[in-house]
Amino acid sequence: MNTFDCVIIGAGPAGLSASLTLGRARRNIALFDDGTNRNRVTQESHGYLTRDGIKPQQFKEIGLNEVKKYPSVSYFSTTVTKINHDQKTALFIIKTKGNQLFTAEKIILATGIQETFPIPSIREYYGKSLFNCPYCDGWEMRDKPLIIIAEKEAFAMHMVKLLYGWSRDLVVATNGTKLSDEALEQLNKRKISIKTEPIKNLIGDNGYLEQVEFESGEIIQRSGGFVVPTFHRPNQFAEQLGCKVLEDGVVVTDSAGRTTIKNIYIVGETEKASSSSLIVAAADGQKVATSVNMDLAIERF
């Protein structure tokens, strides 16, 4: 088997950026991706200078084409199913869905995160009229009648304060959670409606929200909104490889992507188990790639 200097798992903005930097550093790289990036349902991506409004798939294709120009970078469109660490050789053995095996000196985990929603039907509207990031989609939803779906008070208040700059026509829906008197006072002062009863149904057409129905039978008109999901990594690679992970899901690093296990690096949303913008993830990928390259340079000098 050909041994790569580094295997990068995940071709989102973080993984692509890391691949580009390492490819330009003439490192022998393998990049794996299975197309499950969470922004694939988004119509447009925003906030990335020179690429504002680009479709996520187009962004990815541009990145892949740039990375593939470098002959030392190999791209594999497949799922990595298992990573083992060979203690004798100190190499990592990467197994894919097709039972192919690859070996590498170093690993960058860039598999991102996935959402879990408080109401399953949110998935039907997510990326078209329901979103989780005001910086990404707040402008498009400006001045519209919006709903904020958040089951924890802290998250609900954080989101409503953010969105108040984009739209004043807001309804906060906690899906059964009661709010504190302090929170109620703040919201009532600004004439923001509060619905604490569970949501029964979301009503709309082709991914575009029109109404929200509550358990009481009450139906309100909304043109879209924002939801606070919980996030999780789609795999347990970090845990299985022995990396230290905090209770909140954050993988411990030295701030330059090096985990507590030598030669394993982590980047972007995968590290923090929380959402990030394209531009921040790409910058993080470049930073971690320089750590990998510097470590290789020192070890081989």
From TrEMBL:
<dbReference type="InterPro" id="IPR050097">
    <property type="entry name" value="Ferredoxin-NADP_redctase_2"/>
</dbReference>
<keyword id="KW-0285">Flavoprotein</keyword>
<dbReference type="Pfam" id="PF07992">
    <property type="entry name" value="Pyr_redox_2"/>
</dbReference>
<keyword id="KW-0560">Oxidoreductase</keyword>
<dbReference type="InterPro" id="IPR036188">
    <property type="entry name" value="FAD/NAD-bd_sf"/>
</dbReference>
<comment type="subunit">
    <text>Homodimer.</text>
</comment>
<feature type="domain" description="FAD/NAD(P)-binding">
    <location>
        <begin position="4"/>
        <end position="283"/>
    </location>
</feature>
<protein>
    <submittedName>
        <fullName>Thioredoxin reductase</fullName>
    </submittedName>
</protein>
<dbReference type="InterPro" id="IPR023753">
    <property type="entry name" value="FAD/NAD-binding_dom"/>
</dbReference>
